Amino acid sequence: xxxxxxxxxxxxxxxxxxxxxxxxxxxxxxxxxxxxxxxxxxxxxxxxxxxxxxxxxxxxxxxxxxxxxxxxxxxxxxxxxxxxxxxxxxxxxxxxxxxxxxxxxxxxxxxxxxxxxxxxxxxxxxxxxxxxxxxxxxxxxxxxxxxxxxxxxxxxxxxxxxxxxxxxxxxxxxxxxxxxxxxxxxxxxxxxxxxxxxxxxxxxxxxxxxxxxxxxxxxxxxxxxxxxxxxxxxxxxxxxxxxxxxxxxxxxxxxxxxxxxxxxxxxxxxxxxxxxxxxxxxxxxxxxxxxxxxxxxxxxxxxxxxxxxxxxxxxxxxxxxxxxxxxxxxxxxxxxxxxxxxxxxxxxxxxxxxxxxxxxxxxxxxxxxxxxxxxxxxxxxxxxxxxxxxxxxxxxxxxxxxxxxxxxxxxxxxxxxxxxxxxxxxxxxxxxxxxxxxxxxxxxxxxxxxxxxxxxxxxxxxxxxxxxxxxxxxxxxxxxxxxxxxxxxxxxxxxxxxxxxxxxxxxxxxxxxxxxxxxxxxxxxxxxxxxxxxxxxxxxxxxxxxxxxxxxxxxxxxxxxxxxxxxxxxxxxxxxxxxxxxxxxxxxxxxxxxxxxxxxxxxxxxxxxxxxxxxxxxxxxxxxxxxxxxxxxxxxxxxxxxxxxxxxxxxxxxxxxxxxxxxxxxxxxxxxxxxxxxxxxxxxxxxxxxxxxxxxxxxxxxxxxx
Length: 706
Hints:
Catalytic activity: [phosphate](n) + ATP = [phosphate](n+1) + ADP
Distance between the termini: 96 Å
Domain Polyphosphate kinase N-terminal: 7-114
CATH architecture of the largest domain: 2-Layer Sandwich
GO cellular component, one term: polyphosphate kinase complex
GO molecular function, one term: polyphosphate kinase activity
Largest sheet: 9 strands, mixed
Structural class: alpha/beta
Domain Polyphosphate kinase C-terminal: 331-496, 504-662
Number of helices: 21
CATH topology of the largest domain: polyphosphate kinase like
């Protein structure tokens, strides 16, 4: 008998998530540019997938000792996984490009055009040719593929043209033409609502590049390189220099994928050339993806940005989050003194978090500010406030994670800015990533001090806070304050592993807490038949936790999981996971909050966390999970959980065949729509209160004149 198949494969499950993103582009309830946006997001997601996840599988498949080893519990070896990955991804791409063409037709009906060069009218062609001669031609550098030219370095994800040229009396020649990285790939033809991509402009003007030569055939291609080489820290070397060396090494990554677009789809003509690519790039046929349209649909982000200037109605109306004067910079500390605050972003504004930090930076009573930073905004108000606080003489500590993937250069830049302002910077912790979201403010109060904290599920990033759903807790409870004092001392290397009161910390602390809480629910199920577990995470891949959830399900515990992305847990397996339900929400906002709940009613414990239920988060990162205690805050969190489970319109449900489907019979609202409507109600109530206050003030002034 073969090995029992207990889990889906993580990366194959992730491809199902990206399919759900593509399927959202078919949602006719969304404005047309929002539908297009999902196609761009799916392409962006897939790029990172092939830069980070796929190379690891390919590396194992290259090793004879590993290639045919089964991945535990999945029933598949690495070779089989790569074959299945290709099959699923090609299906996704077919669906994605089919929708892309459909949406272009819809835009054409609205008199907005995304054209190929051959489809331009006479006026448009003249504009494109003029742009080519003025801007593009001087920037082009063709590279011949012959003994007189060095083999070109193929840059990661840069679009290239492969050209087969011929000339009477001469041997045919082959040329690679990289698109200039300095030029925008999307070309807007002046005075029109017609757009064309750069490679199409070049294709229409080949005769001006290769004088005297004829173009026999060509295709466009794009190679993705491994961007996740192993990083082994040396405690004896400067960490900043190690990160800088790592970034140089990353540019030398091996190819993991090649995408090819051929105008007429006749790939047989290029059989010999493609075989050479396969050999030169050390790829297999399964690593080739033949695209029915322009490569790299992230170009649609730029297209949407330009089209919305004239057609803002083709996007969602701007969302105005809930805001309160109690959360203003002048009131935020007194409001926290009155009780804990729970914020659900982006439905609740992120401004209170920024106001909290800004007010702390300006207050003469502030003694110290300590904060973790993982990914921050490009023009960060968080960094600005920390620098201002330091320059004002406050003791400021920032734990900046230099190993945050694809944010390394950005974080190196911010480290220099912070240090120049006098901030004490800790460069993370050796061999671990500091992914926790924690902010501690210590203020002087009378003869003593008082601690204020912010604990969250998302980054300190005011840009992404408008698009990501996250939870924030602001509190002056002394127990949270003591915990964060201990936490920052631990991260700074000045204390042994602390005993916390209201938080648990990974590595290991969060997984141990979750396992313990699952055991408690098994106990309740055995004695009271009311065991309940709710987890909302971005991914669930920790087999340790999954096996514990299987154990709870076998005892009859009701388990509801909301998992945005990869989920390797199998549902509906008899005797294993019959009481487990898995939902996935893909919508206007990116689901990013992590919420854990155990039990129900007055016995329910609710935690918010920076950690997903993944091995990397549980064992290899510094993460924080914080239990909620304030009665009002717990009730708010319970209402959020109830909304996620009550409102299921547009929610995807996982079945035992690893398919995600929406229910034909569902609630009137999706969870995100419900939260938007609630935020709008709060905003109306605030405006009515302000109006009523102004009326009272007006009448007071009126009567005072008498």
